[in-house]
Specification:
InterPro entries: ABC_transporter-like_ATP-bd (IPR003439), ABC_Transporter_VariousFunc (IPR051782), P-loop_NTPase (IPR027417). It comes from Streptomyces formicae. Residues 11-216 form the ABC transporter domain. This is ATP-binding cassette domain-containing protein. The structure is a single chain. By secondary structure, the chain is of the alpha/beta class. The chain has a single domain (11-206), classed as P-loop containing nucleotide triphosphate hydrolases (Rossmann fold). Helix content is 27%, strand content 22%. The protein contains 5 helices and 9 strands, in the order βββαβββαααβαββ. It has helices spanning 50-58, 99-110, 114-123, 139-150, 169-183; strands at residues 11-18, 27-34, 38-43, 65-70, 73-74, 84-87, 157-161, 187-191, 203-206. The chain has a 5-stranded parallel sheet. It has a 4-stranded antiparallel sheet with strand order 2-1-4-5, with no helix packed on it. Strand 4 (65-70) and strand 5 (73-74) form a beta hairpin. The longest helix has 15 residues, at 169-183. The chain is globular. The chain binds adenosine-5'-triphosphate (ATP). Adenosine-5'-triphosphate (ATP) binds next to helix 1.
Length: 218
């Protein structure tokens, strides 16, 4: 069986038509292909389909037509999860679970190094909050925890939707450092209106309209 690996950063969206309301697709014949590592910055106005693209990559939104493959695997298959990370805009944490326990629990689920996860949280300024419940965190610290939890362990492809929202400058710089580092040997698809100067973007494109059937971006 083909398993996604750290060395398999491919994301391929082929001829995808998808949306939420029958007869009114958000994408019609969308094709995007990234076959090698890099930090790709995806921009676009409100409502152009950025979050819809995230959901297609996550495998939760199934295309009406076409295919979405992550690490060579169908995005909706359970096997695709291991090599892919998705960080949505809306944090989904356990209100009564501490910051530390979020990281320990998720690291165990991912087979990841717990200490490495805690170190990342500390670097982002969460040390004073490690033993506090998630519900006690400020908006920015909630988002820092969410970002860490969503990106624990090894992966070949990560898709992040507005990870800098609500994050202070120091935290944004730390996140930019991590994303730049990952971009050297993994595929990182970053959706963000704001981009810190330190970010080492290797590719950039704008999602500014619904593409016509058969149109390809990359
Ligand atoms: N759950 C849903 N049900 C119906 N329509 C939806 C749903 N989610 C998004 N849409 C529609 O799909 C289109 C694309 O929305 P999407 O959220 O993907 O855009 P976006 O580029 O992420 O926007 P923003 O920058 O505002 O976050 C919009 O017309 C939106 O109204």
């Amino acid at each position: 069986m083909h398993r996604p690996s750290y060395q398999d950063p491919a994301l391929e969206i082929r001829d995808v038509t998808a949306g939420y309301v029958e007869g009114s697709p958000v994408f019609a014949g969308l094709s995007l292909s990234f076959g090698k590592p890099g930090l790709v910055h995806l921009r676009g106005g409100n409502g152009t389909g950025k979050s819809t693209l995230v959901e297609l990559c996550s495998g939760y939104l199934l295309p009406w037509q076409g295919t979405v493959r992550v690490g060579g695997l169908d995005a909706s298959s359970p096997a695709a999860r291991a090599g892919r990370r998705i960080c949505r805009t809306q944090p989904a944490l356990y209100p009564d679970m501490t910051v530390r326990d979020h990281i320990v629990f998720t690291s165990r689920c991912r087979g990841a190094d717990t200490e490495a996860g805690l170190d990342r949280a500390v670097r982002l300024g969460l040390e004073p909050w490690l033993d506090h419940a998630a519900k006690a965190l400020s908006t920015g610290n909630t988002r820092k925890l969410w970002y860490v939890v969503c990106t624990l362990g090894s992966f070949g492809c990560a898709v992040l939707d507005e990870p800098f929202n609500g994050i202070d400058q120091e935290g944004a710089e730390k996140i930019a450092e991590e994303l730049s580092l990952w971009g050297a040997d993994r595929l990182v698809l970053l959706i963000s209106h704001m981009v810190p100067a330190a970010l080492a973007v290797t590719d950039d494109f704008v999602l500014d309209r619904t593409p016509r059937s058969g149109e390809s971006w990359h």
